[in-house]
Design goal:
By secondary structure, the chain is mainly α. The protein is built from 14 helices and no strands. The protein has helices at about 5-15, 15-25, 30-55, 65-85, 95-100, 105-130, 135-160, 175-190, 200-205, 215-240, 245-250, 265-285, 295-315, 330-355. Helix 1 runs antiparallel to helix 3 and helix 2 packs across helix 4 (about 65-85). It is flat and about 70 Å long.
Amino acid sequence: MRPPPEISVFLLSLLAPGVLYTMNNMPALQEPLVILGMGTVILGSVLLLLFLTVRHKAKVDPLFYVFAGFSFTCLVGLTNALEQDGFISGFMGFYIKMGEPHLSTAYALMMSYWEGVVHFILFLTIIHRMFSGKSYRSLGLLWAGSSIAHQIVHIPGVVIGKYGSNIRPAFWRNVPFFLAPFWAASLLFSRPREMQIITADKIAAEQKKSLLFRPIDLLLSLLLLGSMAFSVFRGFVVLDCSLDTCFTYIYQYEPYLKDPVGFPRVMMLVYLFYALPLLTVFIYGLKTPGCSWMLDWTIFFAGAMAQTQWCHIGASLHSRTPFTYRVPADKRLPVIALNALLAAAPALLALRCHTNPTYFMKPVPAGQSNSKKKKN
């Protein structure tokens, strides 16, 4: 009897620490180009084993190979985080020295924990649902938002930060991991979503209500406005705004924003140029009935903000961040609270959209039966 695909993926992923331990104890495999070559060979071998695992299936979703392949790298990331924090040893020394030195930074450790725990659980859940005939579209969009946010901060942060002068060949292994989430997201967005069956009368009644008569939506709009203001402010801070308020904030509240690793600066610019427009259209979607795209983009954005804020909050407090760049002890409460709210607002918005999507469904044309399932 064959094990379920998610069990096979789980067992295959457990090989990652063994591969790292072997390479860490074989000097011949520790040259920069050899590390890149071995990484390519290992990834190819993993994909081949995955193909052999599911070849008996009549039809396999191509996204299976993305989720299963990333599962293997999740355990690599978790191994790195555990070693850098002193829980284990003897696995990652060669890679930190000759592969990607930036993976020893506090930001990279928080990123690795997120991959090794949150993404890994998501992948196993998605694969289980995939082969059980259940929908996994929303979970896939949650991962896609998280993974894309991770990559668009990680890669530019390495290039422009203090590790940019020490980029080794192994760094370029990130290219396929940068492109794959975009491809996966495009597939997931193009697939039809499952919608609740809601009568035309209920849709019409809900969509007649103004924002003032929808207190939850009004509160969410205010939270999003606050998130927008905070994103603009911190964007100005990392752009070296000369206002006294910006100067006070970066030195007395979040000195991590000027850490030379580069990740916090890139993150604030991503918020300013990408998150800010999305927050704006979400407020529009809360005010305007029939914006069915809210159901997809809110969960995508919630994944992105959860990942980036986890990494940012954790790195700003972590012992691997130099003391001068950590959040001062007497300012931790307001800084953590503000950053937690920035992560919570998109999550609450996504939860609101998916628990009660009536307002966001397209108006039902006159004459359509109330019993028909709404298609969006």
